[in-house]
Amino acid sequence: MEMMIYAVLSAEKDPEKFNALMVGVKGIEGADLYSVSCKEITAVISDLNHASLIADRSNAIEYAGVVETLAQDYSLLPMRFGSRMDSTDAVVRMLEKNHDEFRKNLQIVEGKWEFGLKIFCDSEKLKAELRAKPEADYKAQDGLASEVKNSVFRDYVNKKLKEHRFEELLVSYVESVIAEITGNLERMNAVSKFKKLSSATMIIDAVFLLENGKRGELIQTVQDLQAKYPGLTFVLTGPWPPYNFVEISIK
Amino acid sequence: MYDNVIDKSKDITILELLDRVLNKGVILTGDIVISVADVDLVYLGLKLMLSSVETMEQLKSGNSIVKR
After folding, report:
1. pLDDT digit string (tens) for A145-162?
2. For an engineered disulfide with A54, which of A156, A171, B37, B38 has Cβ 3.0 to 4.6 Å away?
3. Of the candidates B16, B26, B34, which has its C-beta nearest A55's C-beta?
4. Domain end call among A95, A110, A125
5. Is the pLDDT of residue A14 over 50?
6. How many domains is chain A built from?
7. Residue A70 region, left (φ>0) first, then alpha (ψ -120 to 50), else beta?
8. pLDDT tens across A125-139, in order?
9. CB nearest A238 (choices: B6, B22, B29)
10. Does residue A152 lie within any of the structural domains?
């Protein structure tokens, strides 16, 4: 019988509660949950019905629900949806082989939750604001003065130069917002990952790993940033189990 | 007050959730099987096209069952 693996955790701190969770929580399609362990590292699994592997919305949400429920009581490493192994023995062998990596990653996420922050802009409005800045005008004029006059390519070249300068201004603007967020996060001892300019409207896509008790501080920080940058839209989601903060190459 | 900042919007939350469940977490190399049944999984009517879209597109362009 194949197994689906939901998460890896350490159940040492409260084994009774963990056993109760294994009885009370159901896996995808109502499958019973159980666990296999190697030393202090435990994998939460269920027998696998092949239909459970269909990555539709319903199954993905159910899967996330199991991980989320476990995460309420135990710091854990979520497995990616669809992780399966051939038998409980194979799961134990996998835990043995990767024991140190699991332990190290569990230490990193201990007592922490993940939050996501996406920052959106009205790209046309932002473009207009950035172009209105004095340094933009200065750069534009400086650049235009060096253009070859009367060239048939002049308009095209000028257009491209302006686009390039706008891109530079935009990157500089995004970096300044990131620097401000990072400065605040450092005070909270948060681990963060940023992606810049993910799309035309999403200028920042970030995830943070934060201690449970710092949630209010993060929310206040985002509220302050929203007030400071009214032209941007801040979308904070969470708390999530630490999906973005597991760094393990399974052997 | 906090609810205004931590987004509870169902669509965004579902997209964020799908992105994490399908794309993040511990990867069990060689043993992951993902079948694509509902294409609408990734088209929820929002512009927030998260990386799940890329994953689904890759899967759609190949076999419906992918082994890695």
Report:
1. 455 556 667 777 777 887
2. B37
3. B34
4. A110
5. yes
6. 2
7. alpha
8. 777 777 776 554 545
9. B6
10. yes
Interface of B with A in 17-36 (CB under 8 A): 17-18, 20-29, 31-36
Nearest residue in A to B29, CA atom = A250
**Do the Cβ atoms of B25 and A80 come within 8 Å?**
yes
Instruction: Choose the mutation target among A80, A88, A181, A251 for the interface with B, i.e. most B CBs under 10 Å.
Output: A80
Which tens digits make up the pLDDT trace of A105-122? 999 999 999 999 988 887
ipTM of the complex: 0.80
Structural domain of A87 = 3-110
In a domain, A191, yes or no: yes
Which chain A residues have a beta carbon less than 8 Å from that of B26?
8, 77-80, 83, 246, 248, 250
* Separation of alpha carbons B28 and A77, rounded Å: 12
pLDDT beneath 50: ranges in chain B: 1-5, 8, 30-57, 59-60, 62-68
**Range with lowest mean pLDDT among A3-12, A55-64, A195-204, A216-225:** A195-204
Q: What is the CATH classification number for the domain harbouring A131? A: 3.30.70
What's the pLDDT score for residue A146? 55
Could you tell me if B39 lies within 8 Å of chain A, comparing CB atoms? Answer: no
* Contact criterion met (CB < 8 Å) for A84 and B33: yes
A13 lies in some domain: yes
Residue A140 within any structural domain of the chain: yes
Q: State which of A90, A110, A130 marks the end of a domain.
A: A110
Report helix, strand or coil for B21. helix
